[in-house]
Amino acid sequence: MSNKMRLVYLLAMTCVITACQKTEKHTEQTEDAQKTTATVSTKQNAEQQLTAKCQSLNLKIKALTNKFAPKKLNELNQSLKTCIPHVALEKRYQWIQDSEQIYANLLAKSSTEVYQYMTDTIGDREEMTTASKKALYAQLKPEEQYLVDHAKALYLEKYYVGEGEYTFVQHPQYYIDLFVPDLEKADQIYFKQLRKEYTGSNYILDAGLAISFDEVAQRLMFWENYLQHYPKAHYSPQVKALISSYRDDLFHGHENTRTLWFDQDKIADHDALKAIEKLAASHSSSNQTAQKFLKLIQASEAQWQQLPKPSQPNDDYDTPEQQQIRAQRAQLQEKIQNAVDQLLKTKA
After folding, report:
1. pLDDT, tens digit, for every residue of 217-263?
2. I need a labelling partner for 228 at 20 to 30 A (CA). Which of 16, 252, 281, 286 fits?
3. Burial call 297-326: b when 16+ CB within 10 Å, e when fewer
4. DSSP letter string over 215-248?
5. Of 118, 78, 124, 77, nearest to 98 (Cα)?
6. Best CA proximity match to 219, nearest among 296, 282, 295, 294
């Protein structure tokens, strides 16, 4: 083959190879484009399905608002877990409010038998035996059996209300698991603190505090500091209500755990004063109230000790002299209590 023919042959082969490479590259690009289009289409379909599912939740919530349906509630909770991250913040707040109403309705519509089963008590605070509980279960309706069988999944548990009585309530872990990861930082702190303060019973039991005065002061300081950092937080009205309650618990106490006892030898409870001293030394917004309270008690203590003490523990047969002594002490006691009440009326 001549050199000229060889050159023509090489050029022809080069063109063929180049053409093949271009064809293969074009084919690959087409396949990649088709795969990308398919992926985008699949993703869009999944997003559309999720959007439709989440939009339908409003109808499901409305249907459950006044209905006793534990199984549907459990299904709703699963859907909420999926949808909460994909809706606006205001919708998340709305769903929290809606779920609270649904749970309140569920508790209100639960039968006496459900309450007995959930609290293990029947009649006059009588504890159920294994046999009686099994017999009671057989009497429950299918939806009621579903509730007690799935109580943990529904965030329901036994709760002590005092004087030997129990109920069952929605556990605050519900908000931690479903909502907290997708809320504002202030809201996350709010729900986590509520969970921390939850003990499975009321903190006021049998006409007295079931927690120490020190714990009351710690909670008060936490919420006051929270409000200082997040004054416009979504749940600030609820926080203000908590602050008001804890302030009253600390400075007044309750019938069986009073802050001001007015005994023969003392005016105020020692542990309450210690807790108030911590509050007075803190940067909490009630620190000045605590400081004024301590000064009031210190000044009043001296007056209280100077008064003559009644000689009889029973005032049914008091002499005129003893009646006068009791009247003087009662007058000072009322004066001190009024001063404390006036002190607490000032804004924290």
Report:
1. 999 999 999 999 999 999 999 999 999 999 999 999 999 999 999 98
2. 252
3. beebeeebeeeeebeeeeeeebeeeeeebb
4. HHHHHHHHHHHHHHH-TT-TTHHHHHHHHHHHHH
5. 77
6. 282
pTM of the model: 0.83
* Amino acid identity for residue 249 in this structure: D
Query: Which DSSP letter does residue 86 get?
Result: G
DSSP letters, 273-338, are HHHHHHHHTSSSTTHHHHHHHHHHHHHHHHHHHHSPPPS-S--TT--HHHHHHHHHHHHHHHHHHH
Assign 127 to helix, strand or coil.
strand
Smallest Cα–Cα separation from 245: which of 272, 222, 284, 216? 216
Burial 184-210 (b: 16+ CB within 10 A, else e): eebbbbbbebeeebeeebebbbeeebb
Residues contacting 63, CB < 8 A, separation 6+: 72
Helix 112-119 with 130-139: angle, nearest 10 deg: 150
Of residues 182, 257, 192, 269, the one with CA closest to residue 223: 192
Burial annotation 122-145 (CB, 10 A radius, 16+ → b, else e): beeeeebeeeeeeebeeebeeebb
CA geometry: angle at 275 spanning 274 and 281, to 5°? 90
Identify the three-state secondary structure at position 212. Answer: coil
pLDDT, one tens digit per residue, over 119-145 is 999 877 788 899 999 999 999 999 999
